[in-house]
């Protein structure tokens, strides 16, 4: 499902116009993104949580040249599915 299809489904299920559903979805995504960028954890009970994790610096290897390289520490976004979502997918 892509964004356009998701907007259509939200509009249909919520009884909204496509334009209103697009605004609502955009606001939700923007709000989650801003919170995660700030370092906050966004938890939607039953669906899952969005947060960032710190990845430590590590030594890697260039597969082409076999040269050892240093990979710097970085923050990475993480989504962890909630129990209800996991159960729904498993069925």
TrEMBL record:
It comes from the Bacteria. SMART domains: BHL (SM00411). Keywords: DNA condensation, DNA-binding. One of its GO terms (molecular function) is DNA binding. InterPro entries: Hist_DNA-bd (IPR000119), Histone-like_DNA-bd_CS (IPR020816), IHF-like_DNA-bd_dom_sf (IPR010992). The keyword Acetylation does not apply. The keyword DNA-binding applies. Belongs to the bacterial histone-like protein family. This is HU family DNA-binding protein.
